[in-house]
Predict the structure.
Amino acid sequence: MIKQRRLERFLERRFGASVADRAAAAAVAHIILRLVRKHPWIAADLVIAGLGRAGKVGLREIARDLRAKMHERRATETKPLLLEAREQRSTDA
């Protein structure tokens, strides 16, 4: 079982240590623990939904990075070809 103080410490490290941040962390910890204790199935649904969303965002970022790398590779591969074509034109003229 998650202990409230442990969760509060995690939230303080994550979001700050001012008085307002500590109060907010304590409130969030209390809400999360109450939800888990009283409505475990709803909490599980929220976790699954969050994991699904995280998976979608992660896949989108990976796809974007791959596209950028492919574009970069194509740009470096075509530059020598363009230079060769220019050299051919200058020698032919």
Q: What stands out?
A: DSSP finds three helices and no strands in the chain. The longest helix spans residues 40-92.
